[in-house]
């Protein structure tokens, strides 16, 4: 709790994550429990506003002279991850909510092996590539527009971290799954 109290951007990231799950829960409850599909769509369409709030908060924090810290880099990474994985997360929750409360089909599990598993891993890897690209553009924009010359290299460093994660994800995901049998 001390981190959240002492660092407003950490609190904004935590609130954005909490807000995401609240909006997903409220949106899907409106759809499947209350039968208010249009209201559900409006609530779910508000999820990207959380991402806008995060970018604005990070930019304002840097603009007012706060030294760039790990939290600012994580803000950019969180934004990229949220935008890239958010729609898939909402679809994942929607299928489960529909099954539980509206008689929808049972969610399909990803097989442990085989071509469908490999396709799933490639889709996930492309999402992390997308997340890294969004985070990189965000961090680059913050470094160029908001941070001063002394602080910009710290944000640039986070771009490298994003792409390192992409590489690790590739090796641990599609490449590992695609290895020849018996290795």
Short description:
With about 180 residues, the chain is mainly α. Helices cover about 80% and strands about 0% of the residues. The model has no long low-confidence stretch (mean pLDDT about 90).
Descriptive notes:
By secondary structure, the protein is mainly α. The chain has one domain (2-177). Helices cover 80% and strands 0% of the residues. It contains seven helices and no strands. The protein has helices spanning 2-6, 8-32, 37-45, 47-63, 70-102, 115-145, 152-177. The chain starts with a helix and ends in a 6-residue tail after the last helix. The model has no long low-confidence stretch (mean pLDDT 92).
Helices and strands in order, then pairings?
Layout (H helix, E strand, L loop, with lengths): L1 H5 L1 H25 L4 H9 L1 H17 L6 H33 L12 H31 L6 H26 L6
Helix pairs in contact: 2-3, 2-4, 2-5, 4-5, 5-6, 5-7, 6-7
> What number of domains?
1
Biggest pleated sheet = none
Strand content: under 5%
Overall 3D shape: flat
How many beta-strand runs?
A: 0
Number of helical runs? 7
Structural class: mainly alpha
Helix content: over 70%
Distance between the termini: 46 Å
Uncertain ranges: none
What is the CA-based Rg, rounded?
Answer: 19 Å
Mean pLDDT, all residues: 92
**H and E order:** HHHHHHH
Keywords: Membrane, Transmembrane, Transmembrane helix
Protein name: Membrane protein YmcC
Transmembrane segments: 12-34, 41-59, 71-90, 125-146, 158-176
